[in-house]
Fold each of these.
Amino acid sequence: MSKITTKAIRINEVGPPEVMKYLDVELGEPGPGEVLIRQKACGLNYIDIYFRSGYYPQPLPGGIGMEGSGIIEKLGSGVEHVKVGDRVAYAGRPTGAYAEARIMPADILVKLPDAISFETGAGMMMQGLTVQYLLNDVYKVQKGDTVLFHAICGGVGLIALQWLKVVGANVIGTVSSKEKADIAKSYGCDHVILYRDEDFVARVKEITAGKGVAVAYDAVGKDTFMKTLDCISPRGMAVTFGNASGSVPPLDLSLLGTKGSLRVCRPTIASYVLNRSLLEPMAVDLFNRVTSGQVKIEIKQVYALADAVQAHRDLEGRKTTGTSVLIP
Ligand code: NDP
């Protein structure tokens, strides 16, 4: 049987963006539970930087990328929920999404509705499913809740902002620049804090008349998390779900008592997408929000797959806003 050759990004070592190489890669045949997918678009996510830099370990040489959309070309044995020719999208491990075609486990694939383009599908799965579980499962945001969301102009942030406004929350968002603040305001952010220039704890206290927020979502990590705890009202919740600035320091749990019976959660999307009974209703909710226009997936940067190095420089350099995709 003739081997399929595809273009893909591979890394032999961890390090700066330049460790990513655009290569010809040979694909085998899909094994049990696997599919061969011809990809139309790949998502760009901050987690890709963790893997490329070695912050999250993986066997090397290896692939990069955890999100994509495309058409199923071949099925391995035992795959039943998708068929050849289906339009599909996914977010999750294993890495290797930065590719024209790939062989991957079928269990994280969902069918993409016809009304959603491949670009949007590739851009929305990781960030959109994350927002879905953050706002519904980790903490059920209610109308009238005041919510602090860091880096609100990023990919996850702009989706969360729109979704929170549909729910009826009062949203306090942080950003690093005036340009990002203007974008956040244009999406309805009620209060925007420039957290590199202003003391965000003092501003949150001021905005909430000293009460603090019901829930704070923090994926910035090291630079913000300990201060984020000071923004939360008694019995409120802090959600630490990422490390864009580095790891959150070890937490003395007794602090949660002195700060007012706070709850803390450290969720990860893997716990959701690997369970189809969770994944399927989450995806339906996300697709409905998008097709109804409640949540727009703002693809603000489109790169050729071959330009993944530049895409990583921009994401890491805080130059991007909203969602970014790579086109094979
Ligand atoms: P973003 O588009 O939000 O980009 C990251 C943003 O973080 C930047 O734009 C920047 O916004 C902010 N930031 C703060 N400090 C730094 C720093 N030192 N270096 C770089 N950026 C910094 O990325 P994503 O939407 O892909 O992901 C957002 C976060 O959510 C990430 O931390 C990611 O790991 C996490 N995540 C977690 C998931 C989970 O299941 N746990 C799933 C998906 C994402 P600004 O310039 O405004 O400060």
Amino acid sequence: MNEGLGPLAGRRIVVGVSGSIAAYKAVSLVRMLGDRGAVVDVAMTAAATRFVGPLTFESLTHRPVLDDVFELDAEQQIAHIELAEAADAIVLAPATANLIGELAAGLVGDAVTAIACASRAPVIVAPAMDAGMWTHPATQRNVATLRDFGYILVEPEVGELASGLTGIGRLAEPPTIVAAVEHLFARAGDLEGLHVVVSAGGTREPLDPVRFIGNRSSGKMGAALAEAARDRGAAVTLIAGVMSVTPPRGVTVIEATTAHAMRESVLRAAPNADILVMAAAVADFAPARASQRKIKRSGDTLQIELVPNPDIVAEVGEMPDEVRPFLIGFAAESNDLEANAAAKLRDKGLDLIVGNVVGGPFDAIGSDENKVTVFAAEGALTDWPMLPKRQVAERLWDLIADRYRHSRGATESTTSPRRRRS
Ligand code: C5P
């Protein structure tokens, strides 16, 4: 079956196979990609060739397998660099702990690492390994490094492993990996030409030179949104409060750690933005006065007077239409999510609001996962499960990009941004 017209038609995809028992699943993966019209080249590590013979892949792709850069003659050496340049995507499946470690460290000892390193194409990594290896801090650190490079992870699944034990580490099924590749091409560039501003992290409202009132926000959700927008082609500005994660590469970072600093940065950036996502946890109150000197202990109780902070997103919501960006807020609620989110959507003049529950078993703050519901004026739009924040970010951009285009589509071209000042 060659569907021909799907998102993979004519795409050059390199599948890098490393030495895991799951290498046999790469055979179905390569076949499925080929069935969807992709031109697939396979690169194998030496260990992979002990699990599956290169001939199996060559029979499917009708193309030579690259399995040892050092045995290639000069012409083939160039061919393999050309392949890295020609690739539209690289899919590493299965990716062993060793391959992930080599890539994280920049070690380029074989055809798979050489192509992944030489190429500027997006890289999808589908790990497969024993549960102990997957959860080992070294692997998790290396995976985090690959995410920092912008690699897309197709998370391993829970199931029976080669050891016979059940745990996390099983290679995602080929259809899941194919879906990740299709998603990459389906959405690639859908934010091209747009300037997206994302605020992330928490604010700290100073009490004295060493103390502050803050919150538990990690900035992970905002960082994931900024990263996903970057990958979809947007020019991204991240207005960063206090974050426990490193901001993604390739985005402009503006630090703003108090509500007032964040207000200044957001109000300055908003008129040049097409879309503003206020994911930051901005303190609603700040101490009326910050002491210049460290407050000394005394036997007495200490009264702190708190004054309300400006509601930044509500100020943007009131901007005139010509400068007001498409506006998305967050609502972290411990109870009555729907009613509170709906009230905030209205009161703050938002286009969409992303509601999540804080406290209790679904606590989103600081977590790597999040369960959100998106609301528009007409009510709840989504019913998503608990998902890794990067996946939440992708789904949010699918929805935001669609709504943004509709909101702008009535008056002007859907492909050009609403305004461009700079
Ligand atoms: O009212 P509440 O703080 O729950 O509203 C949350 C939403 O409003 C978030 O999008 C947050 O970034 C934004 N916010 C703001 N300025 C504040 C407080 C919250 O922009 N002072």
Amino acid sequence: MSKVYHATHVGKVRNNNEDALIYIEPETFVVADGMGGAAAGEIASRMLVETVEDFLPSVPRPWHEDILQKSILKANAAILRTARSNENYRGMGTTATILHLYDGRAYYAHVGDSRLYRLRNNQLEQITEDHSYVEELVRRGTLTPEEARVHPLKNLLTQAVGVIEEISVDTASFSVADGDIYLLCTDGLTNMISDKTIAEILSNSSSPVEELIDAALDNGGHDNISAIVIVV
Ligand code: CA
């Protein structure tokens, strides 16, 4: 059985928390980072996690990546419908990153710039690719990762859930190894601390989520911060 730690923090600058996370026991994890004016971001991320939480348990496990993808597409339709029916919610959307562990395999589905990381043999690897404008430029070699971190357009997403009808969900599965540590988090964490700091905390801490959030707060806490850590 894995050990699970999770928390979300409003940060030091914002008044509301647009992140949402859920832990569907025993081994399914979701983070969502909402966006949109007024309270709309909160609505979008909450609708995402509620739709996923309603849908997945209605299907037999394991929840393969196509099932995880379907849960995100359902949320996409629901959020879009709500956004179109209410002026105040127009343009709202959310990221979605889902990890399901079952019988030695990991399945994931992902849209946006929240992230899934894996620490294995002391090596931290970012499993998901950010659907963001600056990350596209990094992949093309136009920007360095360091330039991307401080780029004025770093919040611009190329894909989000609930904004348009056709979205393309990244999915994959892979084998889990004993001792793997997984991290799901929002950009309020990764914009504040480096991968090196994340790796150090995951390798050494007995309360990793608390330490990750404290480190992000110490570095400014400009955004809502959410993290789920799973120690296999
Ligand atoms: Ca955020």
